[in-house]
Amino acid sequence: MPKTPDFFARKTLFLTGAASGIGEATAYIFAREGANVICADIDIEGAKRVSHEVNQRGGKGLAISCDVTERAKVEAAVAAGVKHFGNIDFQFNNAGSAIKRSKFLDIDDDLFEKAYDLNVKGVFYGMQAVLPHMLERGGGVIVNTASMSYIRGGGGHSIHYASAKGAVVTMTMGVAREFVKENIRCVSISPAAADTHFQDISSNDLKESMTNDIPIGRMADPEEIAEVVQFLCSDACPYITADTIKISGGGGFR
User: In CATH, which of 3.40.50.300, 3.40.50.10860, 3.40.47.10, 3.40.50.720 is domain 12-245?
Assistant: First the structure.
């Protein structure tokens, strides 16, 4: 929770991957605090549904169609959000996926490039689009979704994804240090397995293996991760930047 009452009221979050999972949960938690939420997603019908729910929960929502793998579409989405609400105070670059599970020798160029386009370039384009606006306004907070997989490497099923998320952690650190004097914080979160549609590409055996690796005994609820995102955007943690916050349920390291 923020230190200042109504800290998030009328402030604006630009959120990718808003139509489901962690993104959807984050939209509702910011709405609870009276924030504006720009719901950006390639699934525009899902984004509209979440935006409507934001309005019902005390915030103001705006749905925007956005394919984060295309720079021009990300730039247009950010510009539309600024035009509508007048400002962007927080950005959560959340859109991402492993695309599909694959053993290392079966990863082809297409899968590797798609994983990096979505998980790395999507974050890169998002930050490059919003940073000039934050610099002009004198500050802001960027949160990027990484993964505990960058520690484990994804061997056997997701090396393409794990390596992409490692790039997100590194890029977050670099951006944070480059812009720290401009009152801009940049942090990544590294969740372990979360109970979202992301896991639809996982076999039952893999889901069971991932769950067994978490000492708390279950996958994370999206809301549990979303609460951390809001905390990181708040005025309660001005000293946190360049870090990746592990949300692991005590696991994810083996």
Answer: 3.40.50.720
